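Exercise 7.
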Amino acid sequence: MQKMGRYKHESVHVLEVTMVALLFFVVADCHPHNGYWDIIWNNTGPQTTRKRFLGRNFEVIIDNGNQTEISFKRTWNVSQSTEPPLNIDKRFIMLRDTPGFYTYSIVERIEGWPISYIQNLRIVFKLQQDIFHYLAVSDERQRVMPTEVDRENGKVLDYKEAVLLTDPTNPDLKGEVDDKYFYASDNKDGKVYGWISNTNPSLGFWMINPSNEYRTGGPFRQDLTTHIGPTLLNVFVSTHYAGEDLAIKFQHGETWKKVIGPVFVYLNSDAAAKANPSILWNDAKKRGYQFWNKTDYNGNFIIENVIFGTYNLFRQYGLWKQYSVLYPENDLVYNVKTSNFFRDWFFAQVTRNIGNNTYKATTWKIIFSLANVENASNYTLQLALAAAHQAELQVRVNDGKARKPHFTTGYIGGSNAIARHGIHGLYWLYSIGIQGNFLVKGTNTIFLTQTIALTPFQGVMYDYIRFEGPHQ
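Solution. The predicted structure, written as tokens, is:
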């Protein structure tokens, strides 16, 4: 939870609410049973990891033969608290003969409350550390995970979330990097994910999302799903991979109310899953929801030249560092005629590490040829950015040292998609007019300079760059 620099002068509450539940609660006066399992609730309700309680008041809303709905309510007393105001009613529903439970929340602002921003709103389940060690996010991303103790004994890398496992309890994991952003997914892909226990029989604990309508950012919005803890999340509102543009911002006195969810927490078990945990994963992903895969225009896909065996595909930590390895002195130069974008275009225009934790701005060149130039006509450079983080991108045409750029984005972006191993964040599109008298017949060069270089994570990701001739 932080106040962004440009809001320092305002008296603004910045709210990051994590509604946390444990795998098992021990509670008085309520012991619902649905034919599969029991839930025992704590009479104070779930606790958050961020120094506040969200369940001071407890009540059973519905209790009949088919359904039990339990509500934990928290009402803020603005006159007696300096904390950001938000009323939260978190509800749990158990249906008879259903192997799991539903949960949703009703969040509300009352008229007259002060200015505040919601940067993060999510529900989190903290599972038992001693039994849950296997994670499954997708068909490709499944693995035995390290423990929190392994992280504590490891080496913190470029940021606190990334830890090199130097002495893990499982020796097979030594030398790996653990980073919670490895397990982020687009909303459209995060329909089911969870953890599997090492008990006999094994127990699967799954988060299943029926839709993304209650989440901010749309289907291509990325966010966290699971990570060490073992932790299982459902993120409703977040500034991850987007920055402050996706924070919910309220003016003084503004009222607001929203239902977020429901989501289904599904539990399954199978004795055979002890040797093959994917059995529980395959069962969980069949719970009546659609899943998608990308194909070619004919509906086909193929992975070539794979040696026989069983593989897991994971994201690689620290790819931004490779720019300084590939371009230690001179920046990227892309020739439209001779270069291959698969090989010659780096995934992000980042800063260059010149040693001693010092970073340098970078200028990329795009070289292209024009057979003819109409000096009096207008050309257009279409510049689309898949992500930007604390960056300024300047464009110059045929004069890389010109004091004044032809175009600048100004200071943009807070998605942090580069550090979070994302392939996109908040989208930016610029249509840049270029008069013909800036161009020449023959070879031309467009200079792209990312000017801000304080950290290794500042930069932009390009979606596409297109140069258009005069419109007839």
